[in-house]
C-alpha cells in the first residue's frame, strides 16, 4: 500500500477539487437549460466530467494499492488500447496467432519486466525481440498478401500501445538520489501535465482559436489553442515542481518537452483516424471515445519523460 504523505494528498486533492467544481458547474448548466433538448454541448460536457471522475477514481485506487496497482492499471490500458488499434487496422486470418502472442505473451512479459524493475529487458524486449519475431511468425503462416503493411501495423501497435505506455509505470523503477519512495508522485506529475495540456489546448482553442495548425488533419487544433495550452501546461508543471526532483525551471522544461510530444502524439493518432474515416478509436470512456483517444498524448510523452529523467537525474 502507498503511504499518503502530505505532498501526495495535496496532489490528489488538486485532481479532485477541480472535478467537484466542474461537476457543480455542469449540474447548474444542465438544470438551467433542461428544457433545451438540443443543447448537446452541455450534455457532452457532463459526459466528459463523468468520464474524468471514473478515470481519476481508478487512478486513485491504483495509487493506493502501490506499484503493483500502477503496473496493472497501465497494463489494462495497454490491453484495451491494443485491442482498439488491431480492431481498426485490417488483418487477415493468418495474423491471428501473431496477435495472440502480442496480447497474451508479449504484453504481460513487458509489464512483468516493469514490475520487477528489470530495465535491461524492459527497454529492448519489444523494440528488438518482438519486432523481429512478428514478421518471422507472419511469414511462416505463408500469407504474402500485403505482408509489409500487415506486419508494420502489428509492430506499430505493439510499440505505441504497449512499449510506449509501459514507460509511465516504469518511472517507479527509477532510483533518483534524494527522492526515494516518492516516484509515484513523479508518475502523477506526468499524467496531470499531459492530460491538462489536452484540456488547456481544447479550452484555449474554443475561446480564441482561429488558425488551424493542420487543417486537413485536425481542423479543431488551432495555433492559439496550441500556444495557450502549452504555456498553461508549462506554468502548471512549474507550480508542481515540489512533487518532483526538479527545480521550478527544470519542471518547466520537462513540462514543455512532454506537452510538445503529447501534441505530436495526438496529431499522429488523428492521422490514423482520419485515414480510417472514423472520429474515435472506440466508445469505452463516456465523453472521451476509446482508450487510445484518451492516452494518445501519453503514448509519445511517457517514453521521452522517462528517458530524460533517467539520463539527467539517476
Automatic annotation (TrEMBL):
PANTHER family: PHOSPHATIDATE CYTIDYLYLTRANSFERASE. The chain crosses the membrane at residues 9-31, 51-77, 98-116, 122-142, 154-174, 186-204, 225-245, 251-272. GO terms for biological process: peptidoglycan-based cell wall biogenesis. Keywords: Membrane, Nucleotidyltransferase, Transferase, Transmembrane, Transmembrane helix. One of its GO terms (cellular component) is plasma membrane. The gene is cdsA_1. It comes from the Bacteria. The keyword rRNA-binding does not apply. One of its GO terms (molecular function) is phosphatidate cytidylyltransferase activity. The keyword Transferase applies. This is Phosphatidate cytidylyltransferase. Pfam families: CTP_transf_1. It is an enzyme of class 2 (transferase). Its EC number is 2.7.7.41.
Amino acid at each position: 500500500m502507498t503511504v499518503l504523505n502530505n505532498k501526495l494528498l495535496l496532489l490528489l486533492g488538486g485532481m479532485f477539487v477541480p472535478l467537484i467544481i466542474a461537476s457543480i458547474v455542469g449540474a447548474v448548466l444542465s438544470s438551467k437549460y433542461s428544457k433545451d433538448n438540443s443543447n448537446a454541448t452541455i450534455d457532452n460536457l457532463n459526459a466528459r466530467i463523468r468520464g474524468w471522475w471514473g478515470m481519476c477514481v481508478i487512478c486513485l485506487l491504483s495509487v493506493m494499492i502501490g506499484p503493483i496497482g500502477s503496473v496493472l492499471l497501465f497494463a489494462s490500458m495497454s490491453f484495451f488500447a491494443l485491442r482498439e488499434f488491431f480492431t481498426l487496422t485490417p488483418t487477415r486470418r493468418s495474423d491471428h496467432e501473431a496477435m495472440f502472442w502480442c496480447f497474451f505473451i508479449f504484453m504481460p512479459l513487458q509489464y512483468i519486466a516493469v514490475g520487477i524493475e528489470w530495465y535491461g529487458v524492459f527497454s529492448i524486449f519489444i523494440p528488438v525481440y518482438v519486432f523481429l519475431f512478428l514478421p518471422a511468425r507472419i511469414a511462416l503462416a505463408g500469407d504474402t498478401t500485403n505482408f509489409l503493411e500487415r506486419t508494420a501495423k502489428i509492430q506499430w501497435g505493439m510499440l505505441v500501445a504497449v512499449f510506449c505506455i509501459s514507460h509511465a509505470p516504469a518511472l517507479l523503477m527509477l532510483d533518483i538520489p534524494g527522492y526515494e519512495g516518492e516516484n509515484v508522485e513523479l508518475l502523477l506529475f506526468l499524467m496531470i501535465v499531459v492530460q491538462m495540456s489536452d484540456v488547456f489546448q481544447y479550452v484555449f482553442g474554443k475561446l480564441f482559436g482561429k488558425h488551424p495548425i493542420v487543417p486537413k488533419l485536425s481542423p479543431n487544433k488551432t495555433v492559439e489553442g496550441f500556444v495557450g495550452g502549452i504555456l498553461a501546461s508549462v506554468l502548471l508543471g512549474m507550480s508542481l515542481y515540489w512533487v518532483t526532483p526538479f527545480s521550478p525551471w527544470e519542471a518547466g522544461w520537462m513540462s514543455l518537452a512532454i506537452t510538445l510530444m503529447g501534441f505530436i502524439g495526438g496529431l499522429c493518432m488523428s492521422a490514423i483516424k482520419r485515414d480510417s474515416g472514423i472520429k474515435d478509436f472506440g466508445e469505452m470512456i463516456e465523453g472521451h471515445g476509446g482508450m487510445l483517444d484518451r492516452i494518445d498524448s501519453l503514448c509519445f510523452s511517457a517514453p521521452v519523460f522517462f528517458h530524460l529523467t533517467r539520463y539527467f537525474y539517476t
